[in-house]
Give the backbone structure.
Amino acid sequence: MKTIPVNTISKAIKRWYRWQTNVARLARSGGSNGVLKLDVTLAGGDELKGMHAPQEIEVYSQLHYTLLISILLTATHAILQDSLPKDPEPYHTSALTGEEWVIEPIVGHPECIRCELGVRADVFQALVTELHALGHTNSRYVSLEEQLAIFLYTCVTGLTIRHVGERFQRSNDTISRY
C-alpha cells in the first residue's frame, strides 16, 4: 500500500475546504458575493448588505466545515502516524545464544544432552567429527556443532521451525537450512 505524506493529505483537505467554503462559488449558486472573513462576519461587521449579505446558515455552515476539517486532519494524522514504520523490535532476546545453548548440555549433566538432542555427549562429538571428515564445515555464522544440534533438536522434539528458532535464537530461514 502506497503511503501518502501527511502534508500532502493536509493540503488536499485544506484545498477542498477552501473550495467548499468559497463565498464567490457560493454566490453563483445564490449565496453571498466576495470573500468573507469569518470573525468579522460573525461579529456582524461585514460590509455586504441586502441580498448579497451572508446568510446566517452560510456563516454557521462555514464553522461546521472548519470543525469537520479539523477533525478530519486530526484523524488522518493519527492514522498515518500509526501506519508509519517504527524501529524494529528485536524478536530473539534470550540470554543464551544458540551456540551457548549447545555448549550447556555438552558440558552439563550427561542426561541433559540425551534428553534435549537424543544422543549422549560422546556420540554427539563423534557425529561432529564424522561430519568434519565428510567435508562439512562451519557456516559464516553457525558452527557445525550448532547445525547438528539444530537438526537433532528438531528431530527429537518435532517442534515447528519457529519454536526451534526461538530456542537457538536464529531466524526461520537459518533453522530451515539445517
Remarks:
- The chain has a mean pLDDT of 76.
- The chain is about 65% helix and 0% strand.
- The longest helix spans residues 56-83.
